Amino acid sequence: MSIQPILELKDVHSGYGSIKALKGISLKVMPGEIVAIIGANGAGKSTTLMTICGIIKAEKGEIYYAGQLINKVSAEKLPTMGLCQVPEGRRIFPRLTVMENLRLGAFHRDDIDQIMKDIQHSYEMFPILGERKKQQGGTLSGGEQQMLAIARALMTKPKVLLLDEPSLGLAPIIVQQIFDIIAQINKEEGVTILLVEQNANLALHAASRGYVVETGEITLEDEADVLLSNPKIREAYLGE
Amino acid sequence: MIQEFKKVWKQYTIGMLWLLGLLWPLLGIHSDGTMTFQTTFTVWTYILAGSFVCLMIYVIKGSGSLKFVADPVSRAAGNIKTTSTALPTWIWLAAGLIVALIYPQFADRYGTDVAISVLLYICLGLGLNVVVGLAGMLDLGYIAFYGVGAYTYAILNTVYGLGFWVCLPLSALTACIAGCIVGYPTLRMRGDYLAIVTLGFGEIIRIILNNWMELTNGPNGILGIKSIGIFLPVFENGFTFEHFWMKKLQLFYYFALGLAIVAAICVHRLNFSRVGRAWESIREDETAAELMGVNTFIYKLLAYAIGAIFAGLAGAFFAARMRFVSPESFTFLESAMVLCMVVLGGMGSIPGIILGVAALIALPEVFRQFESYRMLIFGATMVIMMLFRPAGLIPAKRVGTRSEEKEG
């Protein structure tokens, strides 16, 4: 008997008004793995994540999370169920302090003692956030903001974390740091990760499996190593 | 010093010429078609002389020649600031409360009347602050709920004879319902679109009040609204309560003070609660708030409803005090005025809003001696205040701190 996928998309269509961004996306994420979605600008990577999270409604197809159909579940209920997204461009709350940002990650929880412990835990995981806990989110640097966004999402106690372009606009050394943290979250906290990236090289090195999205459709799906050695991928996304 | 002057003289000259161009049509063109230059030039020369002195002081200060005056002054200001922050907040609150309580004993009828307006607008401003300052939704039709509250009391009192104390919660309730009805379709919009739609709904409510002759008596308004009834203990023939109609202005003042204090406490408590955190997250980034599990629609509707409740309470009091309501009291200009008070005082900051309201109600009264230039000076003051304090007179603490400031 095979293991049930924790997140599964079956032929999902969605879009913005008359513009169809997704034309039948199907993918599976197994518990405990890191899966990468790579693709060019406008291929529909971010839309896929936004559709999973219910910010954009799926027009057709089914989205299953832990065996449950979540197409009709409204966006704000998903963090309670253990599905959380770190959105593209970080989108932290700029005029709230680091501490308040983290408190908002735990918005649906009411176990105040555990929340405080978890906040301490995020400060241990990201020492820079501990140093700046009373500072406003908007005054942090890009890398610190990305860390805050990840820490905030972890405060929801997710089982599945959706990460949208965590390397966007960051210096290479910071990007490496962020990806180390992602691997750490996956290994130590046992969080399943679905990663969307333009930086295909990085993403496929971090992930165990990968999907390639082109104009709203999955064109390729394989183990990350295989994709990395695929000459077509190397040409199209790794610049060789 | 010369160099400092060189930096600014071009801008200054252009500014003064612009002022001349602005002043002449205002002062020089008369209703009978004649044009004069004399008065324009006199007024302009006065302004020129005054501003030139200010400019020179500014330039001298910039070049450091005024250090012997500026240094002690800034040191004294710093001292005042440290002593004021050293005092606990409750001392300030207590002092403010005592001043507010004894104020009508010293003020004349006119002074008390202005103070009642201030307190009423504080209640309105705090309500709008929930919508604009905390939840970050620009609402241009807020005064409509004030109107709904006022008309609720007016109609219930004149038609059904219900007393003020029964109508006060009912006014709040109808305003809240009106807020939900208006909010339900409009809160799907964001930003500028929301502002336009609320503007539209505000006008719709005013026009309904204006045209529904059977219910609201249209533009004639509703007359003969009863004042607030109170029971006072009377000690003749033993101990009984007797019913009085509130007529004394001082009693109105204390009632308005109570209303404003209740509003301030409610808004303060809400601000630092879970609900307040949800509102602030919506203000900062709605999509991110939704991703973090905040039910944005419910919380936005809640903000709208709570704002409307405060407006409804203020409206019922307004109707009881004026004993007359007409649609003219609830125009867009009033909405804009309340919004100005909130923005000028500092969005999200309760002391800021109180100061903003006081400034915007008191300034036109103070400038009464300038007669027809009153509103001109009023406008100029607002422009200057926004230039020098864009975050408001007293910016909200949690919104105002920057990284370069020391961590607490």
Overview of this protein structure:
The complex is a heterodimer of chains A (240) and B (408). By secondary structure, chain A is an alpha/beta fold. Helix content of chain A is 37%, strand content 26%. Chain A is built from ten helices and ten strands. Chain A has a six-stranded mixed beta sheet with strand order 6-7-8-3-9-10, with helices on both faces. The longest helix of chain A is centred in the last third of the chain and has 17 residues, at 172-188. Chain B folds into two domains: 2-78, no CATH class; 103-400, ABC transporter involved in vitamin B12 uptake, BtuC. In chain B, the strands form two sheets. Chain B has a two-stranded antiparallel sheet. In chain B, strands 2-3 form a two-stranded antiparallel ribbon. In chain B, α5 crosses α15, α6 (143-160) runs antiparallel to α7 and α14 packs across α15 (350-366). The A-B interface holds A 53, 55, 74-80, 84-85, 87, 91-97, 100, 103-105, 107-108, 132, 134-136, 139, 152-153, 156 and B 274, 277-278, 280-281, 284-285, 287-296, 398-399, 401-403, 407-408.
